[in-house]
Specification:
The chain is an alpha/beta fold and 213 residues long. The chain contains eight helices and eleven strands. The protein has two domains: 122 residues, Periplasmic binding protein-like II (D-Maltodextrin-Binding Protein, domain 2, 3-Layer(aba) Sandwich), CATH 3.40.190.10; 87 residues, Periplasmic binding protein-like II (D-Maltodextrin-Binding Protein, domain 2), CATH 3.40.190.10. Helices cover 32% and strands 29% of the residues. The strands form two sheets. Strands 2-3-1-4-11-5 form a six-stranded mixed sheet. It has a five-stranded mixed sheet with strand order 8-7-9-6-10. The chain is elongated. Bound molecules: 1-O-pyrophosphono-5-O-phosphono-alpha-D-ribofuranose (PRP). The site of 1-O-pyrophosphono-5-O-phosphono-alpha-D-ribofuranose has 12 residues, from strand 9 and helix 6.
Length: 213
């Protein structure tokens, strides 16, 4: 039996739908159960339910051979994992956003640009790459308010429908990446259990193609 780390939260319902369509329906409703380990009905997989930010760690450390993780989380954590498949759901964009009237020139080096984000590494890399002096404040949520109140000139965050930005009077200034759910694999398991892991990858790939057909 292979273990698959699954992120709880907003991505879980789509993940459950995907797994069911791929032939690996969970034995219980994942969104409703409080169990942290749930087998698939076919008995070939076992689902491990953890916080999105923790899922890659379980795969990297080999407690789960496979995992599903949002590209945004993977960009932030940069785990040492194989990422063979874009599963196509949980689509969103990683952006730099802020108040529309922020006209602060990004090459003004007199004082550091202040940035608030749940993705401090992504934010830091972005401003570093452009050679812009910056300070990054790590927030845990409701990041938009940081830009509204002036804690930060910019936020680096994910945008799905755009509603949160709109309702708080903010706009996208720059798009950094297109994100979606990805299948991640433990490097050692990919080789040591090539047959079993490869079969799951093939089933997931087929299901992904069918969804786009
Ligand atoms: C995420 C993200 C934005 C919002 C974007 O936050 O950080 O705030 O969703 O979605 P939208 O474009 O559809 O409005 P989340 O809902 O996960 O809550 P949080 O602020 O507590 O992190």
């Amino acid at each position: 039996m292979l273990r698959v780390a699954l992120p709880t939260g907003r991505i879980l319902k789509d993940a459950e739908r995907f797994l069911t369509a791929a032939g690996y329906a969970p034995a219980e409703n994942l969104a409703a159960t409080r169990k942290l380990l749930v087998p698939s009905q076919c008995g070939r997989l076992e689902y491990l339910l953890v916080k999105p930010v923790d899922a890659p760690l379980y795969v990297e450390q080999g407690l789960a051979e496979l995992g599903i993780s949002g590209k945004d989380t993977l960009m932030e954590l940069a785990p040492d994992l194989l990422e063979p498949l874009d599963l196509g759901f949980a689509r969103c964009r990683m952006v730099v956003a802020g108040r529309p009237e922020i006209r602060r020139s990004l090459d003004n080096t007199l004082s550091p640009v202040r940035v608030a984000s749940k993705f401090p590494r992504v934010a830091r890399l972005h401003f570093e790459k452009r050679g812009i002096p910056h300070v990054v404040f790590k927030l845990s949520g409701s990041v938009e308010i940081g830009a509204v109140l002036g804690l930060a000139h910019y936020i680096v965050d994910i945008v799905e429908t755009g509603t949160t930005l709109r309702e708080n009077g903010l706009v996208v200034h720059e798009e950094l990446a297109q994100c979606s759910a990805r299948l991640v694999i433990n490097r050692a398991a990919h080789y040591s259990q090539f047959g079993a892991v490869g079969a799951v990858i093939a089933d997931f790939a087929r299901s992904t193609e069918n969804q786009h057909a």
